[in-house]
Amino acid sequence: FSSVEITGHLLGRIEQLDGNYNSFITVTPEQALQQAAAADERLTAGGAPALCGVPLAHKDIFCTEGVRTSCGSKMLDNFTPPYDATVVENFNNAGAVTLGKTNMDEFAMGSSNETSYYGPVKNPWNTNCVPGGSSGGSAAAVAAQLAPGATATDTGGSIRQPAALTNTTGLKPTYGRVSRWGMIAFASSLDQGGPIARNAEDAAYLLSAMAGHDPKDSTSLYRPVPDYTAGLNGDIAGLRIGVPAEYFSDDLNPQVAARVQDALKEYEKLGAQLVEVSLPHTHLAVPAYYVIAPAEASANLSRFDGVRYGHRCEDPRDLRDLYMRSRGEGFGEEVQRRILVGTYALSAGYYDAYYNKAQQVRRLIKQDFVQAFEKVDVIMGPTTPSPAFALGEKKADPVAMYLEDIYTIAANLAGLPGMSLPCGLVNNLPVGLQIIGNYLDEARMLNVAHRYQ
Ligand code: GLN
């Protein structure tokens, strides 16, 4: 098939089916078909890169030149960036086709995709359930076969948790592996882009195109990018898998635990060795994250002031009124909650008690992993404490929602790569197996995931 034919087929599926899922905020058919025609020419000429002609979807947090980039917020409902994010540029250079922009929690704050200004995303496995978040649109689009792969971001689980809830494979790279330039900032020391795909092999192709040093992002790493597809079939006999006791606590649904244990047994059959490890500060990850992430968010979101771009209120009386009403109208409830919490934690009288304390806890959490990786090659456990929950179930209870990420957030605080891959069903809903790797060990993680799939 030509890229034009495949792209046309997927655009048709989106048109026909996405009314059920709401996984896209914007679909760009004309642009997609133009890109596909150009890709077909490159493919005919020969020597085109692996992703040439492959249709993808981008989370609406990545800036796209000439295409509205809303970040799931009313604040940016009218924002059309004049440039592409580096990740998007990399895919364009590789000849990939952009089908459109996927739905997400507002400013990536959420674990259910219910905070989006554009309405919730429905889980293709059961449309009464959430797909997870914040990259719920990307995960649902891949799960519903509206796109073979999609970009996503993970500040505290937002690639891995929706991947787990939709039976897709998602990878959050090492902090700094993928450029954040043009990716709308939530919490800059935690944010990292990565792929959601149908399996580890596809994720490897996507990551190979996304990763790399970018002079426009001062935190991006100066390290060569390996070919992530090269080692997928490598033997994993002798692999040491760390199994943290803390990831199998009472919070974990027993049926989810059983699926994860089955997967670990499969790994033993493949020659891997299970090693008990301890990550004693695990229970502090969520509390530390909910100080650090809102603190950084409160600073990052100060740029949305109604002056330069984004939502502006009608007829402001004065500058203060302009700020207050533009921000009050443009930001949803969860975003406002984060700004308030973050501003409080950073204020002079509370800085040491909250922000500094959280940074100290962050160091302890990182230290736990450094010690564990002296004994093991990868760490495995569940991605989430339970399968997908019902729409509306946790919406009114922010703390219940925050606990969705008890197993994912520590990797963000430590800057480590993490991925989620499908490992069976519970009541016909998907369960995710999480792999946490050592710094820059994405190639090994993809190999380990691929051997199981
Ligand atoms: N669920 C977490 C939050 O709401 C993580 C979100 C994310 O990773 N972007 O902050």
UniProtKB/TrEMBL annotation:
Name of the protein in its database record: Glutamyl-tRNA(Gln) amidotransferase subunit A
Originating species: Microbulbifer rhizosphaerae
Described by its record, this protein's role is as follows: Allows the formation of correctly charged Gln-tRNA(Gln) through the transamidation of misacylated Glu-tRNA(Gln) in organisms which lack glutaminyl-tRNA synthetase. The reaction takes place in the presence of glutamine and ATP through an activated gamma-phospho-Glu-tRNA(Gln).
Biological process terms in GO annotation: translation
What is stated as this protein's family in its record?
Answer: Belongs to the amidase family. GatA subfamily.
Q: Cite the Amidase domain residue spans from the record.
A: 5-446
Task: Please tell me one Gene Ontology term that the record gives under cellular component.
Answer: glutamyl-tRNA(Gln) amidotransferase complex
Q: Does the keyword Phosphoprotein apply?
A: no
Q: What is its EC number?
A: 6.3.5.7
Reactions the enzyme catalyzes: L-glutamyl-tRNA(Gln) + L-glutamine + ATP + H2O = L-glutaminyl-tRNA(Gln) + L-glutamate + ADP + phosphate + H(+)
For this protein, the record's PANTHER family field holds: GLUTAMYL-TRNA(GLN) AMIDOTRANSFERASE SUBUNIT A, TRANSAMIDASE
Residues the record marks as active site: K59 (charge relay system), S134 (charge relay system), S158 (acyl-ester intermediate)
Q: Which Gene3D superfamilies match?
A: Amidase signature (AS) domain (3.90.1300.10)
Pfam families to which the protein is assigned, alphabetical: Amidase
Keyword vocabulary terms for this entry: ATP-binding, Ligase, Nucleotide-binding, Protein biosynthesis, Transferase
Q: How does it assemble?
A: Heterotrimer of A, B and C subunits.
Top EC category: ligase
Query: What GO annotations for molecular function exist for this entry?
Result: ATP binding; glutaminyl-tRNA synthase (glutamine-hydrolyzing) activity; transferase activity
